[in-house]
């Protein structure tokens, strides 16, 4: 998950489906560093670290709370919005929710939503091959942040994904066309101006609410591409590299159950197990469904998951059925029981 600054998105008419580079094979492609981006990344990190210093030493408590709020809201906009709603179409959303998610997503400075979804669809379609924009076979650093600092692999450019549904969405087209005009207002001025309402210094707001917040948000999602593609169990599909990581899920709003997600990318929960604490995006989508703003939520039936676990899992799946001693009390509480017999 992440953002990139080159290649305007295309409709992707020539979709190639053949395998490009076998997964699990280290790629020896040379890095062509784009120095402008590398310098920008270094400066943003320095500014973010200074923001962390100010967070603990100079910022007002309202500013600290506001920074956490911005981070959480933008994290939800990336996970529940860009990822689950638009890239995977795992559920549908009414206009107010789409506007809300797209506004926070734009504030998060993760590129246009169509570009983000293009990279993410390519990541799923060609996972851990040279056509995957953040192929984890090119190393931890490359899959974490390095891919944003170098020229894209020719295989990434050659292999298009279908984006026609996103181009057909007027809201996304608007964001795509006017993105550059929205940046100064949404990314820079809003997080600097709002803290002045409670008397915060503009300089503190700049480093804390903008740079520190930005650093926090990008790295929380970069670990999904790096850590969750190198570590963790593979209970659903042992033939792919993404693994299950509860820790990543906790920080990345539910995106760390990555073996499950790559096995069933269209499930709005992006997970089978783990409750709301490890999947705040699912909590958000479920709440939105309650008020009618989210609908047509797709999820995988238990027997289908079980068949997949038995067919391709690595044997580490903890729960085999209801009443399994490994089943957590939280999962038991959250499970849907249809036509429940209250007397038994
Ligand atoms: Zn992945
Ligand atoms: Zn995904």
TrEMBL record:
The Swiss-Prot or TrEMBL record lists the needed cofactor(s) as: Fe(2+)
What InterPro entries would the database entry show? Answer: Acyl-CoA_DS, FA_desaturase_dom, FADS-1_CS
Keyword Transcription listed? The answer is no
Q: Where is this region: Disordered?
A: 1-23
- Residues annotated as transmembrane: 34-56, 63-83, 95-116, 178-198, 204-224
Q: What is the membrane topology noted in the UniProt record heading this document?
A: Multi-pass membrane protein
- Taking every annotated instance into account, which residue ranges of this chain make up the domain Fatty acid desaturase? 61-265
* Domain notes for this protein: The histidine box domains are involved in binding the catalytic metal ions.
Q: What is this protein called?
A: Desaturase QPGE
Q: Which organism is it from?
A: Helicoverpa armigera
Taxon lineage: Eukaryota, Metazoa, Ecdysozoa, Arthropoda, Hexapoda
């Amino acid at each position: 998950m992440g953002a990139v600054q080159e290649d305007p998105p295309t409709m992707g008419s020539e979709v190639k489906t053949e395998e490009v580079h076998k997964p699990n094979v280290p790629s020896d492609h040379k890095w062509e560093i784009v120095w402008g981006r590398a310098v920008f990344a270094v400066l943003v990190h320095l500014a973010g670290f200074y923001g962390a210093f100010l967070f603990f030493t100079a910022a007002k408590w309202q500013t600290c709370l506001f920074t956490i709020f911005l981070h959480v809201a933008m994290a939800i906009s990336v996970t529940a919005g860009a990822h689950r709603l638009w890239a995977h179409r795992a559920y549908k959303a009414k206009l107010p929710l789409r506007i809300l998610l797209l506004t926070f997503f734009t504030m998060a400075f993760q590129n246009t939503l169509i570009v983000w979804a293009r990279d993410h669809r390519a990541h799923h379609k060609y996972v851990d091959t040279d056509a995957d924009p953040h192929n984890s076979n090119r190393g931890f650093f490359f899959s974490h942040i390095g891919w944003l600092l170098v020229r894209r692999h020719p295989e990434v450019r050659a292999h298009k994904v279908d984006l026609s549904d996103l181009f057909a969405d007027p809201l996304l087209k608007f964001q795509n066309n006017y993105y550059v005009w929205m940046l100064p207002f949404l990314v820079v001025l809003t997080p600097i101006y709002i803290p002045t309402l409670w008397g915060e210094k503009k300089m503190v707001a700049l480093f804390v609410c903008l740079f520190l917040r930005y650093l926090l948000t990008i790295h929380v999602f970069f670990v999904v591409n790096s850590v969750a593609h190198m570590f963790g169990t593979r209970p659903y599909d042992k033939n792919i590299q993404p693994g299950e990581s509860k820790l990543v899920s906790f920080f990345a709003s539910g995106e760390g159950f990555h073996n499950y997600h790559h096995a069933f990318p269209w499930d709005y929960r992006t997970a089978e197990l783990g409750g709301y604490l490890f999947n705040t995006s699912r909590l958000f989508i479920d709440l939105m469904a309650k008020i009618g703003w989210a609908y047509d939520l797709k999820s995988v039936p238990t027997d289908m998951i079980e068949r997949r676990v038995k067919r391709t899992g690595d044997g580490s799946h903890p729960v085999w059925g209801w009443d399994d001693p490994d089943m957590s009390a939280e999962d038991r509480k959250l499970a849907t029981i249809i036509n429940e017999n209250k007397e038994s």
